[in-house]
Amino acid sequence: MLYIGIMSGTSLDGIDICLVNIDQGCELVASQYLAMPLALKQSLLTLCSSGPNEIQRAALAEQQWAQLAAQGVKQLLSKTRLSASQIRAIGSHGQTIRHEPAQHFTVQIGSPALLAELTGIAVVSDFRQRDIAAGGQGAPLVPAFHEMLFKKHPQPCAVLNIGGFSNVTLLNENTSTLGFDCGPGNVLLDAWIQHKKNQTFDRNGTWAASGTVNKSLLNSMLSEPFFATQGPKSTGRELFNLPWLQSLLAQQEALADQDVQATLSEFTAQTIADSILAAQASTRSVWVCGGGAHNNDLLQRLQRLLPDCLVDSTDSQGIAADWMEAMAFAWLAHCCLENMPSNRPTVTGARGLRVLGAIYPV
Ligand SMILES: Nc1ncnc2c1ncn2[C@@H]1O[C@H](COP(=O)(O)OP(=O)(O)OP(=O)(O)O)[C@@H](O)[C@H]1O
Ligand SMILES: CC(=O)N[C@H]1[C@@H]2OC[C@@H](O2)[C@@H](O)[C@@H]1O[C@H](C)C(=O)O
Fold first, then answer.
1. What is the DSSP-derived secondary structure letter of residue 218?
2. Which atom of ligand 2 is nearest to the CA of 96?
3. What is the predicted pLDDT for the residue at 24?
4. Residue-wise over 345-358: b if at least 16 C-beta within 10 A, else e?
5. How many CB atoms lie within 10 A of CB 167?
6. CDD domains in the record, alphabetically (predicted)?
7. What DSSP string describes 318-331?
């Protein structure tokens, strides 16, 4: 059965759209990336913190987001010569603009009704709400998908997504799947290079590699209480953002800009390595996906901090690192339509297994 998965992640770089065939597994058929137009990126970013007239701004931004996503779906259908009627459903994550699990809410916008109307395809969306209602974090949700994809791979292993934030799934054939957000992924690296060099990201981590890690800044970042807590846990831009970094920098001696980037890269690698070792010290392979899988500097630091593990992209396992999350949301839509629970209570802390998603039929 053919499904479309759409992910618009916390990096706000763009919308990932993929076409998959779901049978026994989940096979990637085609994909389409749409860069986020600057004005929409700015509107969405502004909605990530409180401000005037939010409801109106959110309602307008989600219409623009749905128009863009629908355009991408049409491009994908035209290049694969498929018609809307051949697609069972779209699984659309939408765009997270708030994530406050401690206050029992998370907000993803993306007007699934408009997306269904514009594409003529049923849409499954609002995946996080039921898990939150059941007392869970509502994130991360990809662990069930990783569990399905990697069940035949040697375990114990970890599947690591480095997107705006990083989250890990720990698989061990003898125990229940674990998973949690490790902390920032690319979000601070992106924010710092944007602030200092007006570039959207540090390609291959070259700028970070040119700097020197500052121990004092590193330790002050690592002392953030989020890192001392065990899972279930998830995080977002509410906690880790440019002002968070700047408030720590204000307590330091002045540092060269590239040294801050190097320290951010080391910090990101260390929070990931520490959380993998704390939760599953027996891990021997770490399969990396998400945009951070392209950051050589970050992966080298991670490999150095995890000397007993093989750290490599999921590409090496035949699973496209860039499309993992979009594929996951196609599969989550399938689970919803088949009435299959897709949260993992050991990951999110929900009271039990739940079928996730709301259906917007055609
Ligand atoms: N060649 C590269 N070198 C370094 N970093 C890269 C490269 N390509 C992508 N990235 C990073 O990956 C980010 C995008 O990753 P991704 O698309 O996985 O994020 P996302 O979907 O927003 O994530 P999530 O929802 O998991 O937080 C970019 O913002 C950039 O920081
Ligand atoms: C609330 C939210 O959007 N969280 C994202 C974010 O990006 C990475 C990490 O933080 C993860 O918890 C989650 O996304 C993936 C798709 C998940 O739910 O598994």
1. H
2. 3
3. 87
4. bbbbbbeeebebbe
5. 30
6. ASKHA_NBD_ANMK (cd24050)
7. TS-GGGHHHHHHHH
* C-alpha distances out from residue 41 to 44, 90, 287, 326, Å: 5, 23, 29, 19
Where does ligand 1 bind, in terms of residues with CB under 6 Å?
7, 9-11, 13, 161, 163-165, 185-186, 189-190, 201-205, 290-292, 294-295, 325
Strands 178-184 and 165-171: antiparallel
Cα(175)–Cα(328) distance, rounded to whole angstroms? 22
Residue nearest to atom 12 of ligand 2 (CA): 140
Average pLDDT, 10 consecutive residues per value, the chain (362 residues): 98 97 96 98 97 98 98 98 98 98 98 98 98 98 98 96 98 96 98 98 98 98 97 97 98 97 98 98 98 98 98 98 98 98 98 98 96
Beta strands in the chain (DSSP E): 2-8, 14-22, 26-35, 89-100, 105-109, 123-125, 157-162, 165-171, 178-184, 285-289, 310-313, 358-360
- Residue 17, classed as helix, strand or coil, is strand
